[in-house]
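Technical note accompanying the year-one report. For the benefit of new consortium partners, we illustrate the data format agreed upon in the data management plan: each record pairs a sequence with a structure-token string. No post-processing was applied to the example shown here.
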Amino acid sequence: MYNLPPANSPIRDMFDMEGLVSMLAPGQRHNLPTFNNALQAAREQCKRLGAASINQVVVKANGTIALYRFGPRGSRKLVWQFSK
């Protein structure tokens, strides 16, 4: 069971709900990027696109799944913890 943001939460606008459901399906979790891979990819995307930040659902080393906002210089902010 996963902890999802409330239906009226602006956090839901930060990721694709259908994409999240498919990523969390049994046998698909291994497709989620690790925290470090997502951080590196977000830094590259921010520079390439000129974006101020990138939101990414990641699986952390302890197995929890979370939504993070990554910045172009490596900043990161936990936005939502999906795993209990």
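Partners are asked to follow this layout when depositing records. The first helix runs from residue 17 to 23.
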